[in-house]
Amino acid sequence: LAKTTQPISMDSYEGQEVNITCSHNNIATNDYITWYQQFPSQGPRFIIQGYKTKVTNEVASLFIPADRKSSTLSLPRVSLSDTAVYYCLVGDKAAGNKLTFGGGTRVLVKP
Amino acid sequence: EPEVTQTPSHQVTQMGQEVILRCVPISNHLYFYWYRQILGQKVEFLVSFYNNEISEKSEIFDDQFSVERPDGSNFTLKIRSTKLEDSAMYFCASRVGRTVLDEQYFGPGTRLTVT
Question: Which chain A residue lies closest to B10 (C-alpha atoms)?
Fold first, then answer.
């Protein structure tokens, strides 16, 4: 299982773009990169997933360089409600696989 | 939007008592999971369940734990004799399993307090 490393915490202000980089140097060929968000006292929530290049949805963008040894989650124009812990997970997309969470990045959005 | 539900939201029990945590996964999902999160720590996998049997379990999931899908809708986690260190948030999750998207849907959690 690929080990991931991400910053413990980040502060930002409303309206700013937040970029969280996750390193996963030993990512395997079959591994995908997935990001989850967790608000206090709630279960994690899927944000975005990708394999390579760039993926964008209504919530975020995920940038993955060609070597796939890192990835960057980009949250455009954050609001106070984006304050949460963001987890980078790397693993095989085989059906049924458990999710292995690291410590995540605690993002605090200030007014 | 369909969602995973869990009951109760908070359970207080005494050490040594049995508890059953209940979950109703999303109706067309085929894979079911339990995770726990001790306060201030990371989310930890406990067990996965597919086709009415455990497909994987972690070291945490010892003989004190069991899971069941008794009626095709509920998915339960039983802790036979609770310990103080079982105090945590317990999250149920489910996944369709028929698509390539590896998205697990988590419930809101049950906060278990063992006194």
Answer: A41
Which of A43, A97, A102 shows the shortest C-beta gap to B108? Answer: A43
pLDDT in tens, B68-92: 998 878 999 999 999 999 999 999 9
pLDDT surpassing 80 at residue A78 = yes
- Helix or strand holding residue B49 (H, E): strand B44-50
| Chain A residues whose beta carbon lies within 8 Å of the beta carbon of residue B33 | 98-99
Give the 3-state secondary structure of residue A12: strand
What percentage of chain A reaches a pLDDT higher than 90?
79
Closest Cβ–Cβ partner in A41, A97, A103 for B102 = A97
Amino acid at B67: V
The three-state secondary structure class of A103 is coil
What's at B35, amino acid-wise? Answer: Y
* Averaged pLDDT, A71-95: 91
Q: Which residue bears the tokens 């698509």?
A: B99
Query: Among candidates B113, B110, B90, which has minimal Cα distance to B15?
Result: B113
Chain A CB contacts of B56 under 8 Å are 96, 98
A18 dihedral zone (left: phi>0; alpha: psi -120 to 50; beta): beta
Report the pLDDT value the prediction gives residue B101, as an integer from 0 to 100.
Answer: 63
A74: which strand partners?
Answer: A19, A61
Taking only the tens place, the pLDDT of each residue in A28-51 is: 898 899 999 999 889 999 999 999
Confirm or reject contact between B101 and chain A (CB < 8 A): yes
How many Å lie between the alpha carbon of B115 and the closest alpha carbon of chain A?
20
pLDDT for A94 beyond 90: no
